[in-house]
Amino acid sequence: MKRITALFTACTLLMTLASCNKPQTQGENPLLAQWDTPYGVPPFDRIRPEHFMPAFERGMSLHEAEIDAIVTNNDEPTFENVILAYDNAGQALAQTELVFGMLSAAETNERLQAIEEEAMPRLTAHADRILLNEKLFDKIRAVYDRRATLDLDAEQSRLLQKTYDGFVRAGALLDADKKERLKQINEELSLTAVKFGQNLLAENNNYTLVLDSKELDGLPTGVREQAGEKAKAMDKNGKYVFTLHKPSLIPFLTYSSRRDLREQLYTAYLNRCNNGDKYDNKQLINDFIRLRTEKAHLLGYPSYAAYVVADQMAGSTEAVYGLLEEIWHPALERAKGELAEMEPLFKQDHPDGEFASWDWWYYAEKVRKQKYALDEEMLRPYFSLENVQSGIFFLANRLYGISFRPIVVPLYHPEAAAYEVLDADQSHLGVLYFDYFPREGKSQGAWCGNYVEQTYRDGKRVAPVVSVVANFTRPAGNTPALLTLDETETLFHEFGHALHFLFHDVKYRGLAEVEGDFVELPSQVMENWAFEPEMLKHYAIHYRTSEAIPDYLVEKMRRSELFNQGFVTTELIAASLTDMDIHSLETYEPFDPMAFERRALVEKRGLIPQIEPRYRYPYFSHIFDGGYSAGYYFYTWAEVLDKDAYEAFRESGDLFNKQIARDFRYKLLARGGSEDGMSLYRAFRGKEPDKRAMLSGRGLWTDPEPAEEPAAAPQDAEATTAVPALPIRPLTGSATQH
Fold first, then answer.
1. Whole-angstrom Cα distance, residue 560 to residue 568?
2. Which strands sit side by side in the sheet containing 447-452, from one edge to the other?
3. N or C: which end of the chain has fewer CB within 10 A?
4. Sign (positive/negative) of CA torsion 298, 304, 308, 314?
5. 3-class SS at 211?
6. Tens digits of residue pLDDT in 329-380
7. Which of the residues 338, 376, 494, 612 is marked catalytic?
8. Tens digit of pLDDT for each residue in 561-596?
9. Could you tell me if 55 and 32 are in contact, meaning their C-beta atoms sit under 8 angstroms apart?
10. How far apart are CA 565 and CA 568, in angstroms?
């Protein structure tokens, strides 16, 4: 995907449901009591902000006692009394962290933000006290050093290796002075991340563009209705309000013929947290890079990027840069070609003007109408939110035989909804929440995470409680929520993450986590089905007429599938490169993040001024408070895997091939991190991934035609002649390094 804000919860909050010895009674802290809710979901109706700090404190105390029991055990260190005991420790604290983390992203308020500022440094210090506990590590190392003689099975060996490696990467081999400094760095980083995220949330909510009816030129009726509804909610009757949230921003940039207003809105979006006020994040960015670079040096790495990537599938920054640069140059050339197509239309409107970044969406849509007789508003009636959700349920049932049943359970917000997920044999697989619409207490973007992580307790599988959170277009008046193609693809994406969680069947908690550049494979692979003609016939149903999307529109969608891909790919890779560049610094000196970005993209790589990177540093939440630091490349690395995986279905001649889906579930999705990501992928695919499917999907590769029968391209097909041929290099890198 291209927009997974806060998706880090999907791969870093890998915890389980805690329980105490007695059910809750009135007045007790629900986070400290056994949950008597249906399906073990959190008791949202009883959880209050004041419950979190006591639950954190109690959880830390219990966790410390569990660690102390391991350390003071005088028996010979074994897998069971050290590694397994450590893996089982901290479940009460972990559960509270899960609930708090998810709520802070989806439904925060001033009280939760204050708790976040107080709790995060304390929780970080608590984690460091354990990970840097010399006596605990001595016991782990004692087991690790005898691993060849312990007769461990594959999963036990993997857990032992991951546990040992995790302690080493956390600083367990450092001397006392360096450990103390590392603790200070980690605490500072945790608070810096909180401040960064809170500043961005405030900036997202503070700006509004308030217009009169005479300033709505070009805007479709549905966009006007949305803006009118927002104005009413803000007591601005008779006005129209546009915000920096994507469901408001993108339609305005796409359809408003008022260039001055497009500039005003897009400039506000680009300058979030870059206005020299109390919400400015540039100094926090300096703090991040200073602290992360020092941390990397303490741990023996030249840069923070080198530290991060060493534990991923890629294995090295060279492998990451190799993939990104391989895509960058042809993508930029394709984008320049797209700009050349738009320039004549722009000059008709503004003979003396210069095409700018806030013009791209508007004139790209004009080109799409001109070239394919297609526009987004023509399609939206077929993509009501209800029907798209039905589509993802249909797909999951066709592939895996699972089904979804609405249930009545506690909700954290009235707009959320919950479903029980039933396996093919009708056994309980988990619970899935959906929370679709923007509001002030919710972070931007879309993500998927857990309230309860799958694990095993007393030999029985504990089913996960999963949540998909988004910021989609709201219903307006009597019109249901009608999604854009981008929003539709996003729902398929996040649903893929949800399936990954729901299918987890991992014995040990420490094996739940997968590499960051693997985690987007289960989500991105689902996007491939979204607009397949056979899928569209099942769910793309007109919300008024109940008629399936007609063949002529499906054909127009097919012909335009590479439309604007140069722009989309360029802005994605630009953000990935700025992330890698800033985290590849080997020494820190105070710097201007905006000047650094300009040098990295414009001066070094030739980015044209008409395209901005998908995220600029002051609001690049993924890499500063979202768990994707030196990891925004994850999406592109995983795209190689997801497109190649989808080829398995194509090659079979059946896009709903149940045997291939079964292999994907049981050889890959269900396994969590029980093996390294590339080994799991090879077990599913039976071969190394091939990059050509990914490059083809982005319009950067075309299979050569037979020399004796050159094929003529249709006149309205996407031109690829200006794009230089790509050398097909193998996806270099490695599994997690030990």
1. 14
2. 403-406, 417-422, 428-435, 465-469, 447-452
3. C
4. negative
5. strand
6. 999 999 999 999 999 999 999 999 999 999 999 999 999 999 999 989 999 9
7. 494
8. 999 999 999 999 999 999 999 999 999 999 999 999
9. yes
10. 5
For residue 358, the model assigns a pLDDT of: 98
Q: What is the DSSP annotation of 62-124?
A: HHHHHHHHHHT--SPP-IIIIIIHHHHTTHHHHHHHHHHHHHHHHS--HHHHHHHHHHHHHHH
Angstrom distance (rounded) from CA 150 to CA 221: 69
494 is catalytic: yes
Which residues neighbour 509 within 8 Å (Cβ) at sequence distance 6 or greater?
A: 14, 15, 16, 87, 88, 91, 453, 455
pTM over 0.90: yes
d(CA 693, CA 680): 19
Instruction: Please state, in angstroms and rounded to a whole number, the distance separating the CA atoms of residues 231 and 101.
Output: 31
Q: How far apart are CA 412 and CA 371, in angstroms?
A: 46
User: Given a cut of 60, is residue 267 above it in pLDDT?
Assistant: yes
Tokens, residue 43: 């008791």
Please, are residues 252 and 230 in contact by the beta-carbon 8 Å criterion? Answer: no
Taking a C-beta distance cutoff of 8 angstroms, is the pair 155, 89 a contact?
Answer: no
pLDDT at 715: 42
What one-letter code names the amino acid at 364?
A
3-state secondary structure of 599: helix
Residues 6+ apart with CB under 8 A from 604: none
- Report the pLDDT value the prediction gives residue 702, as an integer from 0 to 100: 74
Q: Which two tokens stand for residue 334?
A: 């394709």
